[in-house]
Amino acid sequence: MCLVGESGCGKTTTGRLLAGLIRPTSGRLLYEGKDVWQTKGADLARFRRAVQLVHQDPYASLNPTRTVFQTLSAPLYRHKKARGGRQALAAVSELLERVDLTPPDNFVSKYPHQLSGGQRQRVSIARALTVDPKVIVADEAVSMVDVSIRISLLNLLLALGREFGVTIVLITHDLAVARYFARHGRIGVMYLGRVVELAETESLVSDPAHPYSAALIAAIPEADPEITRGKKRVELRSAEIPSLLDLPPGCTFHPRCPLSEAGLCDVKIPELLAIPGHREVACHVAVRERTAEPAAATA
Amino acid sequence: MPVLSVRGLSIDYLTRRGAVHAVRDVSFELEKSETLAIIGESGSGKTTLAVGLIRLSPRGTRVATGEILYTKDGMTSDIRKLDDDDLREYRWAECAMVFQAALNSFNPVITIWEQFLDTARAHGIKDKHRVRERSAELLDLVHLDARRVLPAFPHELSGGMKQRVLIALALMLEPQMLILDEPTTALDILTQRSIIDLLRQLRQRLGFSMIFISHDLSIAAELADRMITMYAGRVVERARVEDMFYRPRHPYSLGLLRAVPRVSGALGSVASIPGSPPDLIRLPKGCSYAPRCPYAIDACREAEPPLLKVDTPEHEAACIRWQHVAEVIGSKAPLPVAEKLA
Ligand SMILES: Nc1ncnc2c1ncn2[C@@H]1O[C@H](COP(=O)(O)OP(=O)(O)OP(=O)(O)O)[C@@H](O)[C@H]1O
Ligand SMILES: Nc1ncnc2c1ncn2[C@@H]1O[C@H](COP(=O)(O)OP(=O)(O)O)[C@@H](O)[C@H]1O
Ligand code: SF4
Ligand code: SF4
Ligand SMILES: [Mg+2]
Ligand SMILES: [Mg+2]
């Protein structure tokens, strides 16, 4: 699945929560049905290995003084997956092959500055794979690099998901990338710290239920002159994004929302509720209109 | 008469390993009020070209050959031959540039008002009142509230606001030409949208010509009249925007187009371009795209293909197999790619 939203809406924070790097202020994070922050010992260690975060910025996340081999072998030793140099080298080579850095011999002794942005991303992914994760949270793994490199990284992540049964959460600004990546999955749209819509990808992009999702889809520039120049805009009432320190009452989107209803939206916080069509939405109006009419509301 | 006419421009970086041929034999023209988009992967020479056009290349750069002809009121001059005074005049009054990653290049310890003052002073405008009026006008033009923005420090502004301020600064002396390097990269969707709409409005109101450089095809789809694809420092295709998007003739343009997923319409087949751009110090013989090209044949490796006229007089591609590419695109058969979708 993919999480999308504007800068500062809380995607990275959510990713860090998922990986257990920060403790929730309230609420619970369940792994295999157990509250992660209540588990200890072996269970906790299992969770820590199972969920791996791949960082936003490949330039910042790799230690510049370590070779690829050093970066990848350290966790192998730490988790007792390799004893001795020969075993480690074999394991590192296999990891490099998995992320298409071939032949591995060309890469093992390189330092990060000797690699391109895309290659660094691959090393970051390989490092996450050292512990056989069940879930990879990839935060903006595609935002730093070029168009074509981007697709090959996404394809790599998808292939890992397929071949090794890894669940992948991709965090991105780019709805087009989210649509491509989660084409058989779901997209969650975040706004000011909350998930405002969660739906199967195609139904989200073709028929968004939340006014904010609709605004995003209408605004995104696309690589097709006819489509992009002919797009119908959703006019927001304000371009200003409220501060997380001083959230508007009721629905936090109401000062900008074209459908906002006085007396309702500015008073009552909309919960994320299931509506027909396997989706959830946090909007009073969408819930009212979509649960009233028969389920088949396709575009 | 084009505003700008670039002929046979080549720019090298002199490094210890040898000369990096970052821009090679580039020619193009820019008409009055026209918008030209230059696309290509990172490292294809876009920034080198843009910076070269206003002669701001870093030390260690050699402009090997070529002319940059600029025409105003029927007078043509070669930018490469301007003296320092004329060059300064040209840089802001005729042709202003908004740099890549400039969002971080604001001086962090001075206010936006002082940035305006500095820029004005650099061009001999000393009257503070005039600067005040002009900056209010310009900020209004880019939809910012001068009372709020002028006293602010850069870190108090969002990325989108900073980009607007940069555009306002660039318009200070009413240039005829605006060059923007990656103007929307690093901004998110709604902000990108507002910058694109702003540029469209400004162009309509002020009638300047625009060159923008981006690896993001969607901004080209939004704003460009004509497009150029660069690969390994060369122009490999030149076309009107519709021709580039719907009838590309160079395999590299086609590859770039297919690497971008869409939100509206069918998802289609998306594929990356395998491999990476060549070493610009030691370029391969023949077509520099051959190592990555799915259509390459032996003849491609013989000599670097020149730009050939294709389809219409305004469309050129540097590919000896452009007709084959046209057939493949025209037919319903699946396109050959290295990575197929599952
Ligand atoms: N360590 C921290 N201390 C205080 N505030 C923080 C911290 N980390 C993040 N924030 C704030 O929390 C909010 C959400 O930030 P987060 O990094 O999760 O956003 P994001 O959606 O990932 O944004 P982007 O798309 O720019 O990466 C922002 O307002 C941010 O300034
Ligand atoms: N100051 C420099 N010294 C040496 N090589 C450089 C310098 N700046 C850029 N290059 C090289 O020139 C080529 C073109 O770079 P650039 O113009 O920045 O491309 P783009 O803007 O298309 O990403 C690249 O191979 C890059 O590594
Ligand atoms: S709850 Fe009201 S203000 Fe919020 S998104 Fe829905 S219609 Fe708009
Ligand atoms: S000339 Fe040959 S190698 Fe070059 S782009 Fe055309 S088909 Fe490909
Ligand atoms: Mg983030
Ligand atoms: Mg550049």
Describe, in plain words, how this protein is organized in 3D:
- The complex is a heterodimer of chains A (about 300) and B (about 350).
- Chain A has helices at about 10-20, 40-50, 60, 70-80, 85-100, 115-130, 145-165, 175-180, 200-205, 210-220, 225-230, 285-290, and strands at about 1-5, 30, 35, 50-55, 135-140, 165-170, 185-190, 195-200, 275, 280.
- With about 300 residues, chain A is of the alpha/beta class.
- Chain A folds into 2 domains: about 1-185, P-loop containing nucleotide triphosphate hydrolases (Rossmann fold, 3-Layer(aba) Sandwich); about 200-300, no CATH class.
- In chain A, the strands form 2 sheets. An 8-stranded mixed β-sheet of chain A has the order 4-5-6-1-7-8-10-9, sandwiched between helices. In chain A, strands 2-3 form a two-stranded antiparallel ribbon.
- In chain A, a hairpin with a 2-residue loop joins strand 2 and strand 3 (about 35).
- Chain A is globular.
- The mean pLDDT of chain A is about 90.
- Chain B is an alpha/beta fold.
- In chain B, the strands form 2 sheets. In chain B, strands 6-7-8-3-9-10-12-11 form an 8-stranded mixed β-sheet, with helices on both faces. Chain B has a 4-stranded antiparallel β-sheet with strand order 2-1-4-5, covered by helices on one side.
- Chain B is globular.
- The N and C termini of chain B lie far apart (about 50 Å).
- One magnesium ion binds near residues 11, 12, 56, 139 and 140 of chain A.
- One iron/sulfur cluster binds near residues 305 and 321 of chain B.
How would you briefly describe this protein structure?
Chain A is of the alpha/beta class and 299 residues long. In chain A, 38% of the residues lie in helices and 14% in strands. Chain B is of the alpha/beta class and 342 residues long.
